[in-house]
Design a protein that fits this description.
There is one protein chain. By secondary structure, the chain is mostly helical. The chain has one domain: Up-down Bundle (Growth Hormone, Chain: A). It has 22 helices and no strands. Helix 3 runs antiparallel to helix 20 and helix 14 runs parallel beside helix 16. It is globular, with a radius of gyration of 20 Å. It starts with a helix and ends in a 5-residue tail after the last helix. Belongs to the major facilitator superfamily. Metabolite:H+ Symporter (MHS) family (TC 2.A.1.6) family. It comes from Raineyella fluvialis. Keywords: Cell membrane, Membrane, Symport, Transmembrane, Transmembrane helix, Transport. One of its GO terms (molecular function) is symporter activity.
């Protein structure tokens, strides 16, 4: 359990760093880094810088996956944490367009690429450390801990911006928005101190003892396991799209289109993140008895079913109903899938290519799904002036996930759970 908690703390720091960019892209960057653009264009450009971070994630998955399967999970996790923290602090110190002109958005984009590269290697390593240290028959509950880092990091990032947003607009736009980025330095020190105490994964040690370490694990993964890699990408796509629309696009939509005050929109996201964090381990635990694919499918179906009811609540313009809508999607519908993402995706692959296969499949999904989801949703609404098209877009990606998880190898339900009780590494 110590390793699971250490994975949770590490991924929380990583995702805090990654997600504060999404909130800032919605609230700050259009004004400070793209001031010459129209409001719609500025928002599109801001969300585009959010999206480019995802372009580097597959590269991070390949590089860190290769070395994670070659030299160990733990070393890669130390590097990703340090790299992510440095990039985030530098964003908090970055001059704006008014100070250095076009160099400001260029540097912002470069630092976002560094963030994406680092988080591309973080997820796979943290997940494997938790899953591979788990006792037999408990990989679901242990594997849910690093997954909890995503909503917990979202909650911390939203909470930090919620406090900063209480400042008058001139102070918020001058220095207040920088504070959440600079806090990352302290969080990284805490995360690093904890991460350095954990032992290397027993599965990696077993692969090394058995002389099963691959010279080119990424090549082996693509050659023999390309189908699961692609199915993992399709399985995750709905979860990624809905998550980033909730924490980025709908914050902007709620405050600018339907008139919900900025602070109250952020508060709604914070409540949803807290509920999600508590729900993830529940579904991780259930997956040890029901089967991981079964629980994930439940989540994919619930996400699709939640879209239009949530949009109706958001469009009411009522702050409490906005909170209920975000909670419905992010805090209730998503956790069955998100809570079992780590153990489901990682255990599809043999231990000698597990870091590479899981990381690449997961990060490929980031490009085709959440990378430009806020940009796409903004463009759809800008073209149609209706949320219906945005809702249809969300339902389509949910359908892709339902089909993909249905095609993942292995049995379902009780038989799947019985086999899980026999997994060692």
């Amino acid at each position: 359990m110590t390793v699971a908690v250490a994975s949770l703390i590490g991924t929380t720091v990583e995702y805090y760093d990654f997600f504060i960019f999404g909130t800032a892209a919605a609230l700050v960057f259009p004004k400070l880094f793209f001031p010459a653009a129209t409001p719609l264009t500025g928002t599109l450009l801001s969300f585009a810088t959010l999206g480019v971070g995802f372009l580097a994630r597959p590269l991070g998955g390949v590089v860190f996956g290769h070395f994670g399967d070659r030299v160990g999970r733990k070393k890669m996790l130390v590097i990703t944490l340090l790299g992510m923290g440095l990039a985030t602090v530098l964003i908090g110190l970055l001059p704006t367009y008014a100070a250095i002109g076009v160099a400001a958005p260029v540097l912002l984009t470069v630092l976002r690429l560094v963030q994406g590269f680092m988080v591309g290697g973080e997820w796979g390593g943290a997940t494997l450390m938790a899953v591979e240290h788990a006792p037999v028959g408990r990989k679901g509950i242990f594997g849910s801990f690093p997954q909890m880092g995503a909503p917990l990091g979202t909650g911390l990032a939203t909470g930090a911006f919620l406090v900063a947003a209480l400042l008058p607009d001139d102070q918020f736009l001058t220095w207040g928005w920088r504070v959440p980025f600079l806090i990352s330095a302290l969080l990284v020190v805490i995360g690093l101190a904890i991460r350095l105490t954990v032992e290397e994964s027993p599965a990696f040690q077993a692969a090394r003892d058995e002389d099963a370490v691959q010279a080119l694990p990424i090549a082996t993964a693509f050659r023999y396991h390309w189908k699961p890699i692609l199915l993992i990408a399709g399985t995750f796509v709905s979860q990624g799209v809905l998550a980033y629309l909730c924490m980025s696009y709908f914050i902007t939509y709620g405050s600018k289109v339907v008139g919900i005050p900025r602070v109250e929109a952020l508060a709604g996201m914070l409540v949803a993140a807290v509920i999600a964090t508590l729900a993830y381990p529940v579904f991780g635990w259930l997956s040890d008895y029901w089967g991981r694919k079964t629980v994930y499918l439940l989540g994919a179906v619930l996400m699709g079913a939640s879209v239009f009811p949530a949009l109706a609540l958001i469009n009411s313009g009522n702050s409490l109903l906005f909170m209920l809508a975000i909670t419905l999607m992010f805090g209730i519908a998503m956790p069955p899938a998100a809570g079992v993402t780590g153990p489901l995706f990682s255990m599809v692959f043999p231990k000698e290519v597990r870091y590479s296969g899981a990381s690449v499949g997961y990060t490929i999904s980031q490009i085709v799904g959440p990378a430009f989801a806020p940009t796409i949703a903004t463009a759809i609404f800008g073209a149609t002036h209706s949320s219906t098209g945005v809702g249809l877009y969300m339902v389509v990606v949910c359908a892709i996930s339902i089909l993909s998880v249905a095609l993942l190898p292995g049995p379902w339900g009780r038989r799947e759970a019985e086999l899980q009780q026999q997994e060692v590494h």
